[in-house]
């Protein structure tokens, strides 16, 4: 692939893990079980932004064929090792981004999913992603976007409202720190945070319905400030 053209591609180019709340296999297995419940069957699955396949390898026993896509070479390197270690011989990996992936696919899917990825796309990119995904979705298929940042809850999480030892002073301190980070990032022209990429579920639902999908959303079981968007043909 050509050299990184967006800030997130640069950010992830040498990352090796998906940044789950806990990195233990016990936790990843729990997260994957929740996600498999919402994926709710199908025989073929595309995981966009699969990272190091921390969830994908748990999906593998439930599907005939899986494809993981990511624009980070280091993530895919780790994914490859993990897939080998876990003996999942039904997974293919593709190095691509949200635009280039479609021309590299050889078949369509019963499930198209992404976990913790949508916050790196703008609303226009999400719109285009859903349009493209709809063309690669089999009849009766679902697009299931996991762990989108909820614009109502993410700022509260950022200032520590959900932490165990919350108090007013800590909230004020954290709010001050976050403000300083945003201001400094603006001055230095660096990405401020993914706060700007947290979306109200209604905005995602509007995009889904524009492309002929019904959408339901449910709270994420393991992340208080995230939700899952489940789309299926109306
Ligand atoms: C937070 S990690 C989550 C990884 C994985 N889904 C998981 O849950 O373990 C986000 C992943 O999305 C990938 N990613 C972000 N934006 C992308 C894009 N536009 N195209 C392809 N991959 C992308 C990153 O490289 C990274 O591996």
UniProtKB/TrEMBL annotation:
GO biological process: lipid metabolic process; methylation
InterPro entries reported in the protein's UniProt record: CFA/CMAS, Methyltransf_25, SAM-dependent_MTases_sf
CDD domains: AdoMet_MTases
Keyword Repressor: no
Gene3D superfamilies: Vaccinia Virus protein VP39
Domain of life: Archaea
Protein name: Methyltransferase domain-containing protein
Organism of provenance: Methanosarcina thermophila (strain ATCC 43570 / DSM 1825 / OCM 12 / VKM B-1830 / TM-1)
């Amino acid at each position: 692939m050509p050299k990184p053209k967006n800030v997130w591609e640069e950010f992830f180019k040498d990352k090796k893990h998906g940044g789950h709340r806990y990195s233990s296999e016990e936790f990843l297995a729990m997260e994957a079980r929740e996600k498999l419940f919402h994926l709710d069957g199908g025989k073929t699955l595309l995981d966009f932004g699969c990272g190091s396949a921390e969830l994908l390898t748990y999906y593998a026993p439930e599907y005939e064929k899986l494809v993981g896509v990511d624009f980070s070479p280091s993530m895919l390197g780790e994914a490859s090792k993990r897939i080998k270690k876990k003996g999942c011989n039904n997974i293919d990996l593709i190095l691509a981004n949200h635009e280039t992936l479609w021309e590299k696919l050889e078949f369509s899917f019963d499930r198209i999913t992404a976990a913790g990825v949508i916050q790196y796309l703008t609303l226009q990119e999400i719109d285009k992603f859903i349009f493209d995904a709809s063309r690669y979705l089999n009849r009766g298929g679902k697009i299931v976007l996991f762990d989108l940042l909820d614009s109502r809850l993410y700022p509260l999480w950022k200032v520590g409202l959900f932490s165990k030892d919350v108090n007013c002073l800590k909230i004020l301190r954290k709010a001050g720190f976050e403000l300083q980070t945003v201001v400094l990032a603006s001055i230095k022209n660096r990405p401020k945070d993914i706060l700007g990429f947290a979306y109200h579920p209604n905005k995602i639902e509007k995009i889904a319905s524009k492309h002929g999908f019904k959408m339901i959303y449910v709270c994420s079981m393991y992340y208080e400030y995230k939700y899952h968007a489940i789309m299926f043909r109306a």
